[in-house]
Every structure is written in C-alpha cells, then in structure tokens.
C-alpha cells in the first residue's frame, strides 16, 4: 500500500530544521504484515529526543529511515500467527521488540532483548525484514525502520512483539506517551531505582521522560522530590506536578545547594537529560549510600569521569535503566490504570499538537527546549 511518511535521508543537517527539512514528507510503499506481524493505523506519535538524536547525528542509524518510535494506533490487519489481537484493537508501540526466548527475555528483562537490539540497530523488524520501500527511477529501494516502529507515517507494519493492547477509552495522544516517555521515566523510578515511600529523590532533566519520572516519584510516595533543569519554565511546571524543590542546573554551586537543602543529599538521583554534566551532578548529590539511576542516552562517545574511590568510601551505586527496566506488557497497563486514577497526570506532559506537515518545526521546538512533549496527531 502507498502511505505518506517522514523520511530521514541525511543526519546532521543544520538547524533550524524548518529550513533545512531533514525529514522529507513523501509517498512510500508499505508491505502488509508477514508472520507474527501487524498492520497499524497511526493515530498519534510523540516527538522524542531519541528521534532528535538521529536527526542531528548524535546517534547514528542506517539511512534512509522513517523515524518515529513513540505512538499509538488501531490494528488494521493481522499477519499469520497473530491470534491475541483483533482488527480494531487500540495499541501502544514499544520501541524494543522482545523475542521472549533469549537470555535477557528469559530472566524477565525484555528491554535488553538481544535479537531486539540487533534488529533495532540494523533498521529491520524483529523478523529481519524491511516492510518499507521507496520507488525511484523505476527501482524499489528499501527504507529502514526506526526501533521497529517508524511511526511518523500514516500506517506501520511491525512485529506483534512491538505492541501492547490498551483501553480504547484512552485518548490516542495520551496513549502514545506511554510507549516511551511514561514507560522510560516512571519505569526508571519504580523498576530501576525502586523508590520507596519517604525517599528523597532528584530528577535531572525535565523533558517528557523526566517529567514522567517526577510523576512516578510522587506516585511512589517520595517525601522530597527535587526538580533540576536548565529551563525555569520547566521547573515551574515541575512544581505544579509534585516537585517540592526546584533548582536551575546552571546556577553556581548548585550541587552544594541541593546537598544542603536535602540534609546531605538524596537517596536517589534520576538522570534523564542524557549528558555527562547531568550524570556528574546526579552522582554528586546522591547521599552516602545513595544511588544514581540513569535512563538518559548521551552520545555513544561520551565518558563519565567520577572519583573512583567514592564508589567504595561512600558506597554509592550507579545503575542504568533502559526502557524503564520495564516489562511493557505488564507495566503499560499498570501505568495506564494509575493515570486513570489520577495518580499519573500524563495528559499534562502534552505541550503542543502538530500535524505531520509541521514535523520539522516540532523538532526545532524540541531542540530549543520549548516542548515537554509534542505530539503529531490528525495524521489521516
């Protein structure tokens, strides 16, 4: 079938993207679902820094590629072997397809699925196939999938293992956020850091994932929630969402100010900015015996320097949390229920709605720090 999609042909084009147009909107071919695959009509897709890092070249991916990995939609067709979904089901996409049988999946850590990671890196679906192609000068050229999803398009063919069925009462533009921002942010708090009631928590980096983490800390019963960012506007929003303290990351001696305000540092520093400076700050403000949990993704070449002796002398812990250390089939419905009970106000993450033709402008605003989460809606 022919669909309209946003194709990235070249990374590293200069900003503003509204002028350089790294994402080209054009008609491409989408093949139907094969064994274990599903065709989904895209209803909403979020603009995330993981997409931006491919656009600006900080996270190399095989090109050309149809971007987009945080989305929700409606099942349109089922490939052979898919028996637990029906046409018309509402689904959220998950950006790591899990095979269910590798060593990581077997121990209950599907976010680390080995075949899933390999497929994502190669720009293919879990089956190893590419269902997207471009017709040019009489020849078909394969297009790569972004994280097994490629949601900046009218439709997507994906592995069944890239989907979680959700309550059809959930608005698509809110449902989309559960696939990345909520899963990663809330999961980093609940599953990664294992925040407990009365803990002191700091969240560094208040994009969509960071704001979701802040909500997760509040839902977990944290006594003190310290919000840290370079944007005063985001700090103001964080205070309305449950933060008890707010600090500008650019202030001089901000680490000492936070340590003093929290009586020796926080139990858990949650880093979601994706920068070495944010990681260093998080490590400094973790109390003796405390922990730094990171779900941010710095450039692959970035290195974290820390005073090595402090790992022993202060018994600090550093842990990573990919995809919020979640089991998506378990955690997405659980987080949706928390949202429906008013404990995770995910709708407040939505800064602005865009149509597909505005996608490059949307990434300009994300790059400039002017969005918590923007969502492409009204794609059809």
Descriptive account of the structure:
By secondary structure, the chain is of the alpha/beta class. The chain folds into 2 domains: 2-179 and 345-377, Medium-chain alcohol dehydrogenases, catalytic domain (Quinone Oxidoreductase, Chain A, domain 1, Alpha-Beta Complex), CATH 3.90.180.10; 186-321, Rossmann fold, CATH 3.40.50. The chain is 28% helix and 27% strand. It contains 13 helices and 18 strands. It has helices spanning 17-20, 49-55, 103-106, 114-122, 172-175, 181-193, 208-219, 232-240, 254-261, 276-285, 309-313, 328-340, 359-367, and strands at residues 2-8, 23-30, 37-47, 65-66, 71-78, 90-93, 132-136, 139-145, 155-159, 163-165, 200-204, 224-229, 245-248, 266-271, 286-294, 317-320, 350-354, 373-377. Strands 3, 5, 6, 9, 10, 17 and 18 form a 7-stranded mixed sheet that branches. It is globular and about 65 Å long. It starts with a strand and ends with a strand.
List the keywords:
Rossmann fold, seven-stranded mixed sheet, single chain, 27% strand, alpha/beta, Quinone Oxidoreductase, Chain A, domain 1, six-stranded parallel sheet
């Amino acid at each position: 079938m022919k669909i309209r999609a946003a194709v990235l042909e070249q990374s590293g084009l200069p900003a503003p993207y509204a002028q350089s147009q790294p994402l080209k909107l054009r008609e491409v071919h989408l093949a139907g679902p094969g064994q274990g695959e599903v065709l989904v009509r895209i209803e909403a897709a979020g603009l995330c820094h993981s997409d931006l890092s491919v656009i600006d070249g900080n996270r190399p991916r095989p090109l050309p590629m149809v971007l987009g990995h945080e989305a929700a939609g409606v099942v349109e067709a089922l490939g052979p072997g898919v028996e637990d979904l029906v046409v018309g089901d509402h689904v959220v996409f998950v950006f790591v397809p899990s095979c269910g049988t590798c060593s990581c999946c077997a121990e209950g850590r599907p976010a680390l699925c080995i075949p899933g990671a390999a497929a994502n890196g190669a720009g293919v679906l879990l089956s190893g196939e590419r269902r997207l192609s471009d017709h040019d000068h009489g020849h078909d050229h394969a297009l790569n999938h972004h994280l097994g999803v490629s949601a900046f398009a009218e439709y997507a063919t994906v592995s069944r293992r890239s989907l979680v069925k959700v309550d059809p009462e959930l608005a698509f533009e809110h449902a989309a956020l559960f696939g990345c921002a909520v899963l990663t942010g809330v999961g980093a708090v609940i599953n990664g850091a294992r925040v407990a009631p009365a803990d002191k928590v700091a969240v560094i980096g208040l994009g969509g994932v960071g704001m979701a983490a802040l909500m997760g800390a509040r839902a977990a019963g944290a006594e003190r929630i310290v919000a840290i960012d370079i944007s005063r506007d985001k700090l103001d929003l964080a205070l309305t969402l449950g933060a008890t303290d707010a600090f500008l990351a650019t202030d001089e001696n901000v680490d000492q100010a936070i340590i003093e305000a929290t009586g020796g540092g926080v139990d858990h520093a949650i880093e979601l900015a994706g920068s070495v400076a944010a990681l260093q700050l998080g490590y400094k403000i973790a109390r003796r015996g405390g922990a730094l949990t990171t779900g941010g993704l710095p450039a692959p070449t970035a290195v974290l320097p820390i005073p090595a002796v402090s790992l022993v002398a202060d018994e600090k812990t550093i842990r990573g949390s990919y995809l919020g250390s979640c089991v998506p089939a378990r955690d997405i419905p659980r987080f949706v229920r928390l949202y429906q009970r008013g404990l995770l106000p995910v709708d407040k993450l939505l800064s602005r709605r865009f149509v597909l033709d505005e996608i490059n402008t949307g990434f300009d605003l994300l790059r400039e720090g002017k969005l918590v989460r923007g969502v492409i809606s009204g794609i059809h």
